[in-house]
């Protein structure tokens, strides 16, 4: 029995120490991309650096190689671009990840931030809580996320449990490295090839018989959320803080409302559309940032499920993004 | 408090440390009793009081049976105890079943119209059966009535087995309560091994299989995503996943219950002996939920006459016993059908056994290795199909059966099937090394520290492989 206890202690202490010495272990999804980004940016010639933040939508829609080519020809200077968008990243996730990027010493010239309405949902907790779980956070980030609406007791409890029982707390991180297919659905997955292609995660189109099923599933998830959406609550401060911190760090920022298919757009109630417009007006006035509504930029055939851009349409979208968003933001 | 939570770990460690730190045997009884009451009260304080109240009444009635001057009076006390326990069981478990059926007959919708519904008592099916078996055993002279109330209350309320069994007999538990407990490293090791194994079965296997089978078994999911939308292959995968899940969930709980009891110096009944390797349905019921099948045999089947009459008399008794067994599992028509399906399988097995007994060559072929493997597969197939009825809705069960046996296209299950097949392989592999004796051969030769390290690794693996949500044990609602 003592050997069982000692082995258990050794395993937990061992993993706990490893996690302490490698803070990014808690968030391998971010860690993998961040390391690849740092390596990509470490080029001779001081390239113009562009980082894209956002959710899986931005990860699918923005093709960094195209961005670099087009922007280089526009500005006459080498460009290094990286797509740091991650599955489920809402305003809080984007802020946390940007802070980590800036703290690591990487200073982008332009940051493209995604303003995805559905990620502002706040029931009894912000949308980000369901994706950027406490076990993915570092100790000094707990106070921050609590400020933006994470339930304090539950957040600290989960973080503590994950720290004291690291094999349970980091189980998805560990399982994702060994056998990603074994992760339960809905868990943010770590993909070994996520950092290839500059962080771009291209989507394939669904075959016709699956397309309808997929859109129906998306509708069942998003339509009620959009009906209940209100642009208020503590998570709004995360977006304001993100824009303010970019300004302080002398990083130019552009905000993009990502493209959506007509079916997805039809699920927005008029109230939410008006509130979204009021929000973008306020952000422009408060922070002086460029905000572009790209929801109608692409035709319906550009989407896998009415909201994720498919591979073939990432290039035309990225080209337009460079010309209408990044170049103006640079100025 | 679920066994798989940190709260239970903290609770159990506290009880365990205090228990073995105190040298007084009586004080340990009171500690376990208080801990058991607290454990049940974490579900509901009122229910804990109800259970304690009815258990106290059973204790008094059993004393009355022992001291009764006439057999008639003793019988009256026994019948009173049975009536009270069955009354409590019927009210809290079956009232909603009859109310819902009555509502539907008259055209009301219980959910929509917010009609009267009775709340469920966790573990009610288990403790009422224990109480009934106790008073019947006292009446039949198999057991003397327990004079010490705390000992008797501990028999009913003992927290490792309180909410989901095993169904313990008075004669097995009460004599243990009287015996002073001494610490045993061997016993503690055995307990820890059982807990580690149970945790692995529950977290790494059962909870993960739930992700596959909930698409068919969870009424809240099915309400929005009908079974009819799934493909036949997906439904078969869900059914296989459920078959794995129910075994690992329940036997995992039983393992943890036995392990916790061992760590406190008590031995509970083994409840599962690899039931999926049964060569026929009768053997299945000697290996699956052993404490329940023994209870049904001793307190329903045998009093009805058992198999002492002819074939049809036995068939009648099996039908009544397993019909009631089905209802014990769930207060729905679907569970009743499940019980009747098993009764039917047992009757067919009896008939076939009689047929084979009269044909020695056939019997010889059936008892060869190939014949036995085929019988195991055949039995497992029918058990798997019968699991379709192990759910709240007969309508959904029928839809599932149609999907299984009339091939049709449709949606896939939400999770990749890779993990399902690896889990199935693991379960088959575990059974193979179990029945061939390989496991025991290796186990006996491993040094103690290696076994200990193995338990720790099993514990860690259970945690790494557990999915996002920890589900309550299936049998907690029985």
Question: What is the compact description of this entry?
Answer:
With 331 residues, chain A is of the alpha/beta class.
Largest sheet of chain A: 5 strands, parallel
Fraction of residues of chain B in helices? over 70%
| Whole-angstrom Rg of chain B | 23 Å
Number of helices of chain B: 22
The first-to-last residue Cα distance of chain B is 16 Å
* Number of beta-strand segments of chain A: 5
Q: What is the CATH topology descriptor of chain A?
A: Rossmann fold
Summed up, the helix count of chain A is 14
Report the mean per-residue pLDDT of chain A as an integer: 90
Major sheet description of chain B: none
User: Which term fits the overall shape of chain A?
Assistant: globular
| Total discrete domains of chain A | 1
CATH class of chain A: Alpha Beta
Q: How many domain regions of chain B?
A: 2
Q: Structural class of the helix and strand makeup of chain B? A: mainly alpha
Order of helices and strands of chain B: HHHHHHHHHHHHHHHHHHHHHH
Q: Tell me the overall shape of chain B.
A: globular
CATH superfamily of chain A: SGNH hydrolase
Query: How many strands of chain B?
Result: 0
Structural class of chain A: alpha/beta
Describe this protein's structure:
The complex is a heterodimer of chains A (331) and B (478). Chain A has a single domain (2-330), classed as SGNH hydrolase (Rossmann fold, 3-Layer(aba) Sandwich). In chain A, 52% of the residues lie in helices and 8% in strands. Chain A has 14 helices and five strands. The termini of chain A are far apart. Chain B has 478 residues and is an all-alpha fold. Chain B has two domains: 6-182, no CATH class; 187-477, no CATH class. Chain B is 73% helix and 0% strand. Chain B contains 22 helices and no strands. Chain B has helices at residues 6-21, 25-41, 45-67, 71-106, 110-113, 124-139, 149-157, 159-162, 170-178, 185-217, 219-224, 232-263, 281-287, 290-301, 311-329, 333-357, 360-366, 369-386, 394-405, 418-435, 438-445, 448-464. In chain B, helix 10 runs parallel beside helix 22. Chain B starts with 5 loop residues before the first helix and ends in a 14-residue tail after the last helix. The model of chain B is unreliable at 112-118 (pLDDT under 50). At the A-B interface, helix 1 and helix 9 of A face helix 10, helix 20 and helix 22 of B.
């Amino acid at each position: 029995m003592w050997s069982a206890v000692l082995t258990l202690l050794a395993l937990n202490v061992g993993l706990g120490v490893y996690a302490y010495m490698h803070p990014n272990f808690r968030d391998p999804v971010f860690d993998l991309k961040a390391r690849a980004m740092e390596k990509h940016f470490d080029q001779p010639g001081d390239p113009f650096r562009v980082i894209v933040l956002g959710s899986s939508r931005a990860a699918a829609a923005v093709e960094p190689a195209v961005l670099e080519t087009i922007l280089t020809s526009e500005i006459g200077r080498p460009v290094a671009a990286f797509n740091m968008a991650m599955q489920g990243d809402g305003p809080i996730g984007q802020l946390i990840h940007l802070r980590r990027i800036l703290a690591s010493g990487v200073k982008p010239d332009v940051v493209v931030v995604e303003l995805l309405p559905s990620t502002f949902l706040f029931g009894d907790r912000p949308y980000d809580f369901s994706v950027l779980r406490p076990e993915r956070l570092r100790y000094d980030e707990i106070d921050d996320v609590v400020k933006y609406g994470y339930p304090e007791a539950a957040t600290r409890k989960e973080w503590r449990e994950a720290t004291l029982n690291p094999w349970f707390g980091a189980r998805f991180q560990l399982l994702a490295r060994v056998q990603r297919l074994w992760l339960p659905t809905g868990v943010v997955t770590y993909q070994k090839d996520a950092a290839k292609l500059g962080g771009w995660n291209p989507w394939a189109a669904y075959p016709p018989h699956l397309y309808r099923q997929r859109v129906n599933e998306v509708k069942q998830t998003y339509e009620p959320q959009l009906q209940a959406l209100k642009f208020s609550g503590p998570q709004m401060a995360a977006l304001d803080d993100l824009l303010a911190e970019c300004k302080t760090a002398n990083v130019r920022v552009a905000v993009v409302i990502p493209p959506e298919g007509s079916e997805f757009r039809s699920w927005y109630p008029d109230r939410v559309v008006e509130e979204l417009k009021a929000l973008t007006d306020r952000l422009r006035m408060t922070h002086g940032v460029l905000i572009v509504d790209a929801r109608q930029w692409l035709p319906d055939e550009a989407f896998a499920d009415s909201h994720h851009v498919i591979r073939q349409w990432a290039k035309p979208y990225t080209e337009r993004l460079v010309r209408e968003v990044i170049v103006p933001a640079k100025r | 408090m679920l066994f798989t939570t940190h709260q239970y770990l903290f609770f159990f460690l506290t009880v365990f440390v205090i228990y073995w730190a105190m040298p007084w045997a009586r004080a340990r009884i009171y500690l376990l009793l208080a801990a058991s009451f607290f454990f049940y009260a974490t579900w509901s304080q009122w229910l804990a009081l109800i259970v304690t109240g009815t258990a106290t009444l059973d204790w008094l009635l059993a004393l009355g049976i022992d001291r009764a001057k006439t057999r008639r009076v003793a019988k009256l006390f026994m019948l009173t105890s049975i009536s009270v326990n069955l009354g409590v069981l019927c009210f809290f478990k079956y009232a909603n079943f009859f109310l819902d059926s009555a509502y539907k007959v008259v055209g009301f919708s219980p959910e929509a119209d917010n009609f009267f519904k009775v709340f469920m008592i966790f573990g009610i099916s288990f403790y009422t059966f224990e109480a009934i078996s106790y008073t019947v055993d006292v009446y039949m002279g198999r057991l003397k009535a327990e004079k010490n109330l705390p000992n008797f209350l501990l028999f009913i309320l003992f927290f490792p087995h309180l909410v989901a069994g095993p169904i313990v007999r008075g004669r097995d538990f009460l004599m243990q309560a009287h015996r002073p407990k001494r610490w045993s490293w061997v016993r503690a090791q055995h307990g820890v091994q059982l807990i580690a194994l149970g945790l692995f079965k529950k977290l790494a296997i059962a909870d993960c299989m739930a992700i596959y089978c909930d698409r068919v078994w969870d009424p809240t999911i099915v309400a929005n995503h009908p079974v009819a939308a799934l493909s036949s292959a997906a439904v078969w995968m869900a059914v296989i996943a459920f078959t794995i899940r129910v075994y690992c969930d329940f036997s995992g709980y039983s393992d943890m219950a036995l392990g916790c009891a061992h760590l406190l110096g008590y031995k509970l009944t083994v409840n599962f002996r690899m039931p999926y390797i049964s060569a026929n349905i009768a053997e299945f019921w000697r290996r699956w939920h052993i404490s329940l099948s023994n209870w049904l045999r001793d307190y329903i089947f045998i009093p009805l006459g058992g198999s002492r009459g002819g074939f049809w008399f036995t068939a009648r008794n099996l039908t009544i016993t397993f019909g009631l067994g089905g209802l014990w599992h769930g207060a729905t028509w679907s569970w009743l059908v499940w019980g009747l399906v098993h009764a039917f399988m047992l009757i067919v097995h009896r008939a076939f056994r009689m047929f084979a007994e009269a044909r020695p060559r056939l019997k010889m072929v059936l008892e060869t290795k190939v014949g036995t493997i085929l019988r195991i597969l055949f039995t497992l197939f029918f058990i798997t199909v019968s699991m379709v009825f192990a759910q709240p809705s007969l309508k959904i069960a029928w839809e599932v059966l149609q999907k299984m046996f009339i091939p049709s296209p449709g949606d896939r299950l939400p999770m990749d099937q890779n993990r399902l097949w690896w889990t199935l392989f693991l379960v088959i592999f575990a059974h193979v090394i179990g029945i061939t004796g390989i496991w025991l051969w290796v186990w006996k030769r491993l040094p103690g520290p290696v076994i200990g390290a193995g338990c720790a690794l099993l514990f860690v693996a259970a945690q790494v492989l557990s999915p996002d949500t920890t589900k309550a044990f299936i049998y907690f609602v029985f």
